[in-house]
Design goal:
Length: 207
């Protein structure tokens, strides 16, 4: 399944708040195709166990902008680690370079961060990295290309911050535009609300 490129507010109306997908807020609250104040409640109450797990999986996929193939790969990788598969799945997604750029406030959404990385604006340990799925590691130093266009994009994003504070595993100097990955993300810094256990169960059932 390809990465979603359609109307973003339609997806937000269906799945709820998706900060990684868009900063916009829909004026309509009901899910697309439904009418009346009780439709959403009735719809969720009629979900089967399979559909509940599918709902959570799709919510995660849209927020992080992943293809189905990518998400399956991350689930397989998380299963190979000792400990909570659900937490390791979220950790892998949060340590992607495009997600880190988004959390630092250098881009307003994850799709914008992906484009920012693709266009070669980001350096990791002084080396240009243009792969959004690059896994950031502890002590990685993130800097921005010393180009006028790169800095203008960053300054525009920083002028309209999405979050009031950085997660504890990241450090950022707004003057030098230099960031450091202090540690791998921990559970308390997982700000996106999703039931990751249901997602692991979804892939366990279809494996």
């Amino acid at each position: 399944m390809a990465r979603y490129l359609g109307p973003r507010l339609r997806i937000v109306r269906r799945f709820g708040d998706l900060p990684g997908l868009t900063a916009k807020v829909p004026t309509k609250k009901a899910p697309p195709g439904q009418h009346g104040p009780n439709q959403k409640k009735q719809q969720k109450s009629s979900f089967s166990d399979y559909k509940i797990r599918l709902f959570e999986k799709q919510k995660l996929r849209y927020n992080y902008g992943l293809t189905e193939k990518q998400l399956r790969r991350y689930v397989r990788e998380a299963r190979r680690k000792k400990g909570s598969t659900a937490f390791f799945l979220m950790q892998l997604l949060e340590m992607r370079l495009d997600t880190v750029i988004f959390r630092l406030g250098l881009a307003s959404t994850i799709p914008a961060a992906r484009q920012f990385v693709n266009h070669g604006h980001v350096l990791i340990n002084s080396k240009k990295i243009n792969v959004p799925s690059f896994q950031c590691q502890t002590n990685d130093i993130i800097t921005i290309q010393n180009k006028k266009g790169s800095k203008q994009l960053v300054e525009k994003s920083l002028a309209n911050p999405r979050f009031s504070a950085l997660p504890s595993h990241l450090e950022f100097d707004r003057v030098t535009l230099k960031a450091e990955v202090k540690d791998l993300v921990n559970r308390k810094d997982l700000s996106f609300k999703v039931n990751e256990l249901l997602i692991v169960e979804y892939y366990a059932r279809i494996a």
